[in-house]
Every structure is written in C-alpha cells, then in structure tokens.
Design brief:
Blueprint lengths: L1 H13 L2 H17 L2 H24 L10 H15 L12 H23 L4 H21 L1 H4 L5 E2 L5 E3 L4 E3 L3 H23 L2 H11 L1 H6 L4 H27 L1 E2 L6 H14 L5 H17 L6 H15 L3 H13 L1
Antiparallel strand pairs: 1-4, 2-3
Helix pairs in contact: 1-15, 3-8, 3-11, 3-12, 3-13, 4-5, 4-11, 5-11, 9-11, 12-13, 12-15
Length: 331
C-alpha cells in the first residue's frame, strides 16, 4: 500500500512543475513579504522537516521504528556548539560551514554507525527500546556533566555559519541570510533523498521492509543495508540539530530527550509514512498548530490531542494518503 501511494505521489509531483516553480518563487520572496516572526516560524518548520524526513527513512522506507532519533538531533547541536561556540566550555575553533558541516557529518555518522551496529542486530520493539535507551543515556550525560555540556542550561553563544574562502567571506548572521541557508539545505537534502529512495539502494530498503527474509534469500546483505540507512538518517538528523542550534544560538539537552523523537514520529505519521512530502506536511502542522491554537485558548494542548486522534482515526495513511486517494478517485 505504501509503495503504491509513493508511486502515485511521484506521478503527482511530475505533473505539478508549475506549482513547484511558484513555491520556489514564494520561498525566495518570503523575507520581503512576511514579518520576522513568520520567517522564524518557516525556518523552524524547515529544520524540523529535515529531522522528520530523516526519521522517515527508518520508519517509512525500512520499517525500523526508532524512538531514540533525537540522540543524533541533539548530538549535531552539541557538536556545532563545541566547534563554533563562543563560551568557556567550547573549543571556539571556527564557524566556517565548509569546515563545521563535515565535522558534524563525521561526528554523528560515527556515533550512528556504532549504535546501528549494535541496535540493528535486533528488530521490532527491541530495536525501539535500544534506540530509546541510547538517547536517554545521552540526555542523562548532557544533564549531569555540567562542566562539559553546561547541564540543564546547555551551551550558548553558537554563532550563525559563514563561508570563508580566504579571499572571500560571507556570513549568514542575519535572519534573512540564515533563512536562505536553511532553504538551500532543505532543498538539497530533499532532492538528495528523492534520488536515494528511487535508486536500487532505496528499492532494496523497501524490499527489506516488505519481506526481509526473502531479500536475504535473494542474496542481499540486509544488515549492511540497514546500517547504511541508519547512519544516513543519523547524519541528516545531526544536520537538522546543527541548524536549530545555529538558529537559536543555543544547544539544549532537551533536544536529546525522547519527546523530541516522539514529535518527529508524529510528524511522519501525520503527514504520511513512506512519502517524502508527508513529513514536511506533518512538521508544518506540528509546529504551526500550537502557535495558532494557543492564541485562542489556554487549553490548546487538549485540542491538539483531539486533532491528532481524529487524524489518526480518519487518515491512517496520513494527509498524503487522503490527497492521493482523492487524486486516484478523480482520474
């Protein structure tokens, strides 16, 4: 069912080039059309969309229900804090994105490789519990090792990135410049994942999710495939964490907590498991609805809960499932 929905989504995407062009134009013009608060919300939505897309690689395409994905999200934030932060607890080396981005990628990738090599020897609820335990362990370390992590206060003074080529330098310090940086990163990751998912590697992942034993009989080394996608998902989550820390100038231990993993999982389910655009839709709703409902009532969390229950009951395949079903009926 998921594979069929994904195929229909691809057809929908190919027929809406004009819509895509309009979206790009609006994204470019947004800083000149909207106020700073709205731009801040868009930046936040894009960052969490990247995070949700990374979790969807595990849940939607490989069938790995991770509940500790926040570990890599928070780890990316702390790595960038140590590399570029300007306080007594950090190294304060550089905020040149040409150097800091590879460090975040390598750092989160190594940890993801270690965790994945251990956790992926199990499956189902056991895999979920191991990933959750790892994230909670990192959260505990971040809270208690105050001399290194800043404790519950976290690490502050994280500058926005810059590009430094020696003869030319450009800073993303302003909100508008950082917005374009986040948009560019989001687009690069989105289309990069699109190509991966529809490559032979991505098709093998879908096969593993559908019937792992059959894939093994066909000669696929399924453990290697799962470790590879686990590392990729961890790296992308780390990049999202890096962007959030640079946006808020702050790396917080809360980014390691299991509730952040839960939010990302809700984003994936709400938007549509197994589709790239689904997590983006879910992230948009999960980050914007609290801001909208809280302006009308103090009980906004209850209304949010009711809305999520309705979505799950009425749209088991997420919002993308509803849209694709209507598209199919109209054909």
């Amino acid at each position: 069912m998921i594979e069929r929905l994904d195929t229909m989504y691809q057809r929908l995407l190919s027929r809406n080039i004009l819509v895509a062009v309009i979206i790009v134009i609006l994204a470019i013009a947004a800083p000149y059309l909207a106020n700073t608060y709205t731009i801040s919300l868009v930046i936040e939505v894009l960052i969490f969309s990247i995070f949700a897309m990374s979790l969807n690689l595990l849940v939607g395409y490989t069938g790995l229900p991770s509940f500790g994905h926040a570990a890599f999200f928070g780890l990316g934030a702390y790595i960038i804090a140590y590399v570029s932060g300007v306080n007594d607890l950090t190294l304060s080396l550089t905020n040149n994105i040409l150097l800091t981005l590879p460090i975040v990628i390598v750092g989160t990738g190594i940890i993801a490789l270690i965790v994945g090599s251990l956790a992926l020897r199990t499956d189902g609820i056991y895999f979920l519990m191991i990933t959750l335990a790892f994230a909670q362990m990192l959260f505990s370390v971040a809270m208690r090792w105050s001399a290194v992590t800043g404790g519950s206060d976290g690490l502050i003074g994280i500058p926005r990135p810059e590009i430094d080529l020696g003869i030319w330098k450009y800073s993303f310090e302003s909100r508008t410049a950082f917005y374009y940086f986040v948009v560019t990163t989001f687009v690069a990751i989105y289309f990069g994942l699109h190509n991966i998912i529809h490559s032979p590697f991505g098709l093998a992942l879908k096969g593993i999710k559908s019937n792992q034993m059959r894939m093994q009989v066909l000669g696929y080394k399924t453990l290697n495939y799962k470790i590879s996608i686990f590392v990729l998902a961890g790296v992308i989550a780390g990049i999202a964490g890096m962007l959030l820390a640079q946006f808020y100038w702050h790396a917080s231990p809360e980014n390691l907590y299991w509730t952040i993993s839960g939010q990302a999982l809700i984003m994936v389910i709400l938007g549509g498991v197994g589709t790239l655009i689904g997590p983006v839709i879910g992230a948009t709703l999960m980050r914007l609805l609290p801001n909208i409902t809280s302006t009308y009532t103090n009980n906004w969390q209850s209304y949010m809960g009711i809305m999520l229950i309705v979505f799950v009951l009425c749209a088991p395949n997420g919002i993308m499932g509803i849209l694709l079903k209507k598209l199919k009926n109209n054909r």
